[in-house]
Amino acid sequence: MKSVFIVYDKAHHDNVMEVLDDCNARGYTFFEQVGGRGTLNGEPHLGSHAWPSMNSAIITMVDEAKAESLLNHLKQLDEDEPMLGLRAFVWNVENTI
Questions:
Q1: Which of 3.30.70, 3.30.1490, 2.60.220, 3.10.620 would CATH assign to domain 2-32+46-55+63-92?
Q2: Cα–Cα distance, 85 to 55 (Å, whole number)
Q3: Would you give per-residue pLDDT tens digits along the chain (97 residues)?
Q4: pTM of this prediction?
Q5: Cα maximum dimension of the chain
Q6: In the chain, which ranges are continuous DSSP H helix?
């Protein structure tokens, strides 16, 4: 199992949900408002007067084959709209109950 943590500009939300559906990543936890600043470029998303926009995040657990497909779809989405910002991180899942 793999855990895929996706952080994205709120404007990406419908597209990210579509990618999850297309990749059959059914189970997830959604964080509606998260702040942050990317490591490469772009503006901070902090919900403040100076930086009012915010991000959202989703974490999902999928098998290894789905994780690769999911990352490929998300990469394409980020490349299609590079100014919005989207990052995905994958971790190994040791145990589940």
A1: 3.30.70
A2: 9
A3: 999 999 999 999 999 999 999 999 999 999 999 988 877 777 788 878 888 788 999 999 999 999 999 999 999 999 998 888 899 999 999 988 8
A4: 0.90
A5: 43
A6: 13-22, 64-80
